[in-house]
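Question (not urgent): is this output format expected?
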Amino acid sequence: MSGRSASPISHRLSSLRALAVLCGTGLLIWVGTLRQAFALALNDERYTHLLLILPLAFLLMAVQWKPNQPSRRGSNWGLALLALSLGVLLISRLMVPKSYDLQLAAAVSAFVIWCLASFIWCFGLSAFRERLFPLLFLFWLVPLPTVIVDTLVGGLQRSSASSAELLFRAVGTPVSLNNLVLLLPGLELEVAPECSSIRSSLILVVLTMFLAQLLLRSPWHKLAAIAFSIPLSFAKNGLRIFVLGWLAVHGDPKILDSPLHRQGGPVFLAIALAAICLLIWIFHRGERRRNIMREDAASVESASAPITIDL
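Got this back:
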């Protein structure tokens, strides 16, 4: 009897060891690629969010892990994805040197596919489906190609400038927007690419996805929170431009050379995160109320059920 109860545990441990071996092998194969990706995250603010992905993904995996769930090793899908990851790696190595960003993105994608394939091979497709979000969340590790980043920066510049213009008009400050230049009384504010706040915007979206998955159960609530974070990223940068411009017009223009301008991004990111947390708290509270109402209805129904006695 003890042998039967120990078999599932030993099987899970064996699957975990196999996963560790496969992921360790992947680290050895892609160690140079990962080093380049993390160096990019440390040196280019447009990729800072890459540093958050592994800790957040592992935390989601740990929270959603079910220790008593049986595992099934040896899925053909796992083998197919392992082969696919090596194929993507080969393609990335054959790319021309001019497309370094595409080469890096393809190589990191191959590493993520290898990790997903390793999980499927060790635990099966059913376990993969139950942990679909934290596993697919790993694709955030892939550095976006330059053409996509430039498009995002341009969109953030235009949206932030428009948001700031609306705020200036709301408080009665004369303003006009000429392309990406805000014309204020005695001052011209240009929303340059470095003022697009892409770093804090990507961090906001990543953290919103993490918090929504961690705290919410309804897929619609999760989707609503993530969708809200996108316009909020525009609004927070527009608020930052507005605050700096308003203080420069009505106070001291030297504020544009102060730390609030150069290093004030985390302040406005915190404001946006507070708004996201408030929205998620409202959704979470509503879900708890509905669960309590369902439990109360179920208990009333079971209490009122007739009792039958066989004689």
